[in-house]
């Protein structure tokens, strides 16, 4: 019987592990280094997987907790809150004074405005040489029909002072912010090109001219903005608000 069992065990393809087999395996010198290397490989793979998943979450727009060093935007906001608010510069949209003594003069012809009604447009037409011409300024005359002093509407520099055969003496003053004023139909000019004048400086005396003969003694007053003729009332103070009236 023993011989038969021995023969069977020897010829079987599956060999029975004898008692003490694990001890023999663990007793091998290479088994523990191999186990350590396997465990280390598993740990390293886990670390790499965690790092890659963290980087991926950062690249997908997931909000990350701000670190204490990221305080510059807060500091800038605090500085801006502590800064005094900017105060807008107040610039009068009517910086020009009435160019004569307000209590002694009046407007006798207005500016020709394409947007005004027909009656106002007709009143702003100048008749000359059998034709009608739109008035590019306003005409100011004294209440007693006599000559009067013409004054600078604002401080500035004289850029023209000459006699025109149609409009009489003309004076042009260049002001700030692209404004300039023209004074025509003057009997004379008391300033010259290059002079600087203050508001209220006397420029000359009102007189007559050929082009606006029907108006008699008067001042032809124009306002230009950036070289374009504009309605003087846009920048001209009312007579009662002009310094010469006070």
TrEMBL record:
- Specify one Pfam family: Peptidase_M23
- Does the keyword ATP-binding feature in the UniProt annotation? no
Q: Which domain of life is it from?
A: Bacteria
Name the chain's protein: M23 family metallopeptidase
Listed A to Z, the keywords are: Membrane, Transmembrane, Transmembrane helix
Tell whether Transmembrane helix is among the UniProt keywords: yes
* Spans traversing the lipid bilayer: 30-50
Q: Which residues form the M23ase beta-sheet core domain?
A: 135-232
Organism of this sequence: Aneurinibacillus thermoaerophilus
